[in-house]
Amino acid sequence: MRKVVLAALLAFPAAFSAAGEGAGSSGDAIPNQFLIRLADGGDPEGTARALADAHGLALLRVYRRAAPGFAALVPPFRLDVLRRDPRVRALGQDRVLLAGPLAGAQLPVSARQIALFDTGISSGPAAPAVLLSPGVTFVVGEASPALEGLDDHGHGTAVARELSRSRPDAALLSVKVLGTTGGGSFSDLIAGLDWLLDGAAHPRLDAAVFSLGAACPVCRPDSLDEGVAILHEAVKAVHDSGVTLSATADAAGSPDGLPGSFPEVSVTAQVLGAPAAVADTTFRLGEAYAYPNPARGGERPVIHIETGLADRVTVRLFDVSGRQVAVLAKEGLPSLIDDGQGPQYAYELAWEGSIASGVYFFVARAEKAGASPLSVTGKLAVVR
Question: From CA 49, how far away is CA 28, in angstroms rounded?
């Protein structure tokens, strides 16, 4: 079975990466990538694997609750045979989803725990006040237990902040279905919806917000496209479970295609802010400074280093004689921070402990796997 899957992936590498890389325009068909709705009855996992073995498919997702079935890479010469298999009820094209407009989502007053389907939500200072954690990630190739639901783009965090401003009493849960470039797929979204129907996997959720969309000629609720029909079935299953569904909309009140135009999803034209700024993920140094500077009385200095996406940062502090007086370090992704110049990926490290008055210099070193380290220097003052 492993040889069959590997062969399919090698045959269709572009299709495997299309959604995760954000390739294509909103609603574009993802080459050779399909949604398969299984006939009712039986075990979706076992049936999906049996079909993969029989037809040389590369499984991407298996759905157990929302539109039971799976997503897979399908060799073109196997499409007709797979469609005629009695275990298959429907077979439809997978399509590209993109981050939607930064606009209001209509939520019921009673909603207290809300899932946000987007690029993730930052856990740093830019995050909204109340987050349910951990979040979850459903982007092919991007899931990591340590980074579940975290925003590596910026759009989701911006939408989360706006939702928190309009509903400060609500808690948000990050359901990451869009990747680093703001792109995803029907199959990623259905995976998130399928998870939402697993009541044992998360706290009780009252509502879900889709800040994304697919716009194309067949991306309509009345479409005969089987891929659209499978997505609609998954959306309807979540709605019928009692979760209120909302989608962001443009200033005219129009949803950005699907899933916002499905009848189970409400939209509003209330624009809450300007289009979301996108943080640059490139590993490079931006601003590096300390604040407050000078740090007076009992204030603790914080070193701010903008790096793009990195793995770790180390800051060494020296007094004017050149003697090293402290070493600060942080492992993992930087936070998404907006200090007034738009969102940036940055580390912030607080210098704790007893610090004497004086002038200090720092040398910061940022590291990322596969790239040369980057270094930057700065100066700060402490007045006690």
Answer: 27
